[in-house]
């Protein structure tokens, strides 16, 4: 029995150590000849999404590896991600847990995370920020009126990292990391765009229906045009297991050249995009410019950094795998014919999405070339 007990302890210790190494890639696995891209909030879903995009050559990076970075104070159980990256097909994915917790007053200053942020920056060519729940309004100087904050520590971590990368109005004396390497890639989807804005000193509209359109409930929202609905409110007034949890609406390019010249999107196309949010940019952060809006101009759908060419983000979700393959047929409204997300997009809409990912791929490769030239 004593031998059996010792065996159990050894096995438990081995699992513990293995899990620890799996979440500390900076110390256990960085190779100087490899290209690394960071992934904030590396949940199973986000890791599988990036894997899908790579496998289908939508994200065109044949050699890059990916480091998922996160705070140990986040609410998500990252042991699920540890188990996922053990699979042979996930060998290009790694994890880096970052310990510690910072107060709101220190997010936009050198703090406990700064040294690790700089190390991650030095060893990578770019970073993605994904979607998620509402940011605590107190961080951008507002009282919480309509925000449902479920993971404040995630937001504190990601906002501080983005501030270190880009700088912001909150602390004009801070020397941002990208001043050292302006070609570094930074992008985000939905919450990722909102986080980029808040981190650089901007603010958010906490609820589009109430604050932008003066609609008090789901019934009033559903009287609006489809292009004014940024998520699906039918679920709140009717029961149907086929309702999709998201919305599709068109977007409008601004005069900024990002979509027409960089993405090379069709000038006459107002592409249909997948949308699932109730918050949006209010006041723009430092050095951010608008690249796209909703069709009525009320909601900012895309931003680009005025100084750093490979820093841009969108309010919609071009990363969702269902946009690029046949899947379950769903509907937005009770009278709709069920369709898959793939069917909802026209070939022209899908071409727009693929061009956007081609732009991302080129930006990361550009950042990689610039990093190699520095060595």
What does this structure look like?
The protein is of the alpha/beta class and 375 residues long. It has one domain (28-207, 254-326, 342-374): Class I glutamine amidotransferase (GATase) domain (Rossmann fold, 3-Layer(aba) Sandwich). It has 12 helices and 12 strands. The protein has helices at 2-22, 25-28, 44-55, 79-84, 114-122, 152-166, 191-199, 208-212, 218-221, 258-262, 341-344, 347-374; strands at 36-40, 65-71, 93-98, 126-129, 185-189, 204-205, 247-253, 272-275, 280-281, 288-294, 300-305, 311-314. The strands form 2 sheets. The chain has a 10-stranded mixed sheet, with helices on both faces. A two-stranded antiparallel sheet has the order 6-9. Strand 11 (300-305) and strand 12 form a beta hairpin. Helix 6 (152-166) crosses helix 7 (191-199). The radius of gyration is 21 Å and the shape is globular. The N and C termini lie far apart (57 Å).
Q: Compute the number of structural domains.
A: 1
> Which structural category fits the helices and strands?
alpha/beta
Strand order of the largest sheet: 3-2-1-4-5-12-11-10-7-8
Largest sheet: 10 strands, mixed
Topology:
Blueprint: H1 2-22, H2 25-28, E1 36-40, H3 44-55, E2 65-71, H4 79-84, E3 93-98, H5 114-122, E4 126-129, H6 152-166, E5 185-189, H7 191-199, E6 204-205, H8 208-212, H9 218-221, E7 247-253, H10 258-262, E8 272-275, E9 280-281, E10 288-294, E11 300-305, E12 311-314, H11 341-344, H12 347-374
Parallel strand pairs: 1-2, 1-4, 2-3, 4-5, 5-12
Antiparallel strand pairs: 6-9, 7-8, 7-10, 10-11, 11-12
Question: Short description, anyone?
Answer:
By secondary structure, this protein is α/β, with parallel strands linked by helices. It contains 12 helices and 12 strands. The strands form 2 sheets. It has a 10-stranded mixed beta sheet, with helices on both faces. The protein has a two-stranded antiparallel sheet with strand order 6-9.
